[in-house]
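Morning run. Coffee first, then this:
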Amino acid sequence: MREGNGKKGGLFLLWSVLGPGLLGALADNDAGGIISYAVTGAKFGYGIFLPVTLCLVIVTYTVQEMAMRLGVVAGKGYNELVRQRYGKFWMMYQVISLFIENLITLVTEFIGMSAGLVMIGIPMWGAVLIGLGLVLSIALYRGYAKKERIAIIIGLLNVVFIVVAFLVRPSMQDIGNAFLFWGVPQGQGRNVLWYLIALVGNAIAPWMIFYQNSAYLEKGTAAKELRHGRLDTVIGCVCQVLIAVCIIVIGASLSSQGTDIEQAGPAQIVQALGEQFGFPAALLFGLGLFNAGILAAITVSLSSSWSVAQAFGWSKSLNESIRQAPKFYGIYFASVLIAAGVVLIPGLPLNHLAVLAQVLGGILMTPILIFLTLLTSNKEIMGEYRNRGFGKVRAWVVVGLLAVISTSAALLSLLPI
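And here it is:
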């Protein structure tokens, strides 16, 4: 009897710990990211990117843990601290660049959500309206805690991608060879670099710093509870990478098909899965896209709202109603409505846009990450919780790595195809 109570107590503790860390990480595997991962797997197979993806656990944890710790210890939003320490110019640069990046990301969320519904016979405009209604409805719930629990339940449905990864019957020998004989295919250096930038850009998207930082402020986590925040964050990072690996494996299963997955839309990816592995695999993948799009649309839009509200000193709490914080919720509604409208424009290069969103995220991330590292290393702001020793070295290594990748992306975009 005691053993049963202990298990229930452990599950309750785990459920209470899970929050912004898990949501921020799982929402990184948004609809655009899923499309990007699937295209990467279809283009390059199991090799190259599976080992690299697993290494991203360290990178994502480093970034998200700093964002969480800054909010918990400083008790102020990231933008407020940037304005106080480095001036309005850098604050506005980050607000504007984040808002633009988030809009592009939101477009990819609606692309993914729509593809999941179109496959079961719902017309495109109807699919967009359903997704729009669900994303907007989260604002109607009162209180941060209720909204967070709903979002976590949505996020946990990402497990469908693990199921699909088994349904496509991957070759375990080929997966093992990807780790044992890692290498870049001859003549594919530029393509590999471009997709590597997209991979990193998805794993450490700019919005997640603003979301993680602000959500922990909303939750009211105290400095003495940092270990719970770190546990929440590491669970999220491990889950995010596990799902990403599964999606690359799913994409790799389509590499032998004649369809040019890179140029096709997400609906064609779902269709290709159905033709090769049956309707259940296609249905689950489509539902996973829909689910991922909803979760990311909620978290990405909230990061825009928190960022802009912090910059202009508006009311910005999810514990407030729409009437109490109209400008905060107005940014949320406007972002979602604009993105939904863009998706209905005919002739959009959907999959290319998904990869582009991840690349742009990697480019915009560098200055944001530099300020995050400076702020979390500041003794006056963080006190005993500042970056020190190995943690400080690790943070600056991540900054340097991203700076190199971002510079490569900028140079790559200038070269002729």
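Residues 23-414 form a domain with the Amino acid/polyamine transporter I fold (CATH 1.20.1740.10). Good start to the day.
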